[in-house]
Amino acid sequence: MLELAILGLLQESPMHGYEIRKELTAKLGAIRAAISYGSLYPTLRRLQAAGWITEAAETPASAEEVPALTSRRGRVVYKITADGKERFAQLIAQAGPETYDDTGFGVHFAFFARTDQATRLRILEGRRRTIEERREGLRDVLGRAAERLDAYTLELQRHGLDACEREVRWLEELIANERSGRAPTVPQPGTAGGRRDNNSPPPPGESRKERP
Amino acid sequence: MLELAILGLLQESPMHGYEIRKELTAKLGAIRAAISYGSLYPTLRRLQAAGWITEAAETPASAEEVPALTSRRGRVVYKITADGKERFAQLIAQAGPETYDDTGFGVHFAFFARTDQATRLRILEGRRRTIEERREGLRDVLGRAAERLDAYTLELQRHGLDACEREVRWLEELIANERSGRAPTVPQPGTAGGRRDNNSPPPPGESRKERP
DNA sequence: CGTGCGATGTATCGGTCCGATACATCGAGG
DNA sequence: CCTCGATGTATCGGACCGATACATCGCACG
After folding, report:
1. Less crowded by CB within 10 Å, the N or C end of chain B?
2. Contact state of B199 with A148 under an 8 Å Cβ cutoff
3. Beta-sheet strands, E only, within A121-195
4. What is the pTM of this model?
5. CB distance B2 to B41 below 8 Å
6. How far apart are CA A138 and CA A97, in angstroms?
7. Cβ contact A113–B152 (<8 Å)
8. What is the pLDDT of residues B143-175, one digit of tens each?
9. Helix A17-27 vs helix A37-50: angle between axes, to the nearest 10 degrees?
10. Nearest residue in A to B22, CA atom
11. Which of A110, A138, A188 minimises the CB distance to B153?
């Protein structure tokens, strides 16, 4: 999962470890806590050894630009390689069971903008299936095994069941949206300020903008 | 976490590994997938080495009861020791940061029937705090960093934010319920059938009530 | 009658990821 | 001046997972 996330992130722009962590924390904040350095750095080294990423020199512009702003000293900036992009495409498209658990789905979903519509649909439906099964499991327990469990445990199951039903509905909307049309956003009033297509989804052949 | 869950479960009755897994899967189904044998068995051995649990002989009733029903052969049944109960009490009451993450909170909550009210309140409030912080983080991202993120990522954040708000409301109800009165259940019509006291929890002091 | 299949049951191994910890630099504010 | 918080890289032990192996039992199907 971390591998996929890093590869996906580095396609936007080269970054060093600390930055990767921050960006990932922002992007995946909804599904998991900040990723640990204890897994980040070893993974970066693994990816580099495999040739998916390389170190990029840190020299800012051309030559004797006196920096003064930031004294990039020990920072190690990584950029993705051509092999790395290939690897990402393979990872993002293939769907094993781990693709549908909470974390796996979240990571895949966070990079939907780099995925083709067929894959998006497949993943959304797989996730729905998974959640539906979880939901059925909870209903079973609440129905059949309710006498064996204490009130707190039951309340926990009810809350979980509610979350499942809600997520299934959310997925239904996304699937419908995905099938007929291409707008990713579910209409939903009054949460954040501006809603506006920002960086539109140019999934397969993309050009990335950066600061000019 | 696994340690706490096993200790808690074994207070209800002695069990073997397979059974522990099944019960735990039922009890914690709302918050996590089935626990792996790859962590269960090593943990059982660790708990046994520490003296929190012991093997219990499998002999069914008294003597030459011809079994014929089940041929309990290799099953290893564990029971909790006095030290184990003490350990459980210590683990369930003390609250570190890991007590408030999704899994940690879920396990603690699932054993609320064996916890005193003060601890329950402390944990519920800590969890609320944690979720509120996560919620603020998501609001920040949706507000300030929205332009930098693609529509799918934003949708993920919105869904996460919604889940946070919902959980905070759920926790509020539980806290209010806990403070004034002692009924664990939030009134909520029409989900499961019978509600009724089952395996009574006589943990430290309190007695559990249910509808008479 | 056998034969295979699904549930029950115990166990290990490699790998991923986390939490704690260490250490070094830099800019800002007291 | 000096500490504090943000930035930044890195390691270590431990928790937990997923795959795998292996053995027994009862039952259904041929």
Report:
1. C
2. yes
3. none
4. 0.82
5. no
6. 20
7. yes
8. 888 888 899 999 999 999 999 999 999 999 999
9. 110
10. A141
11. A110
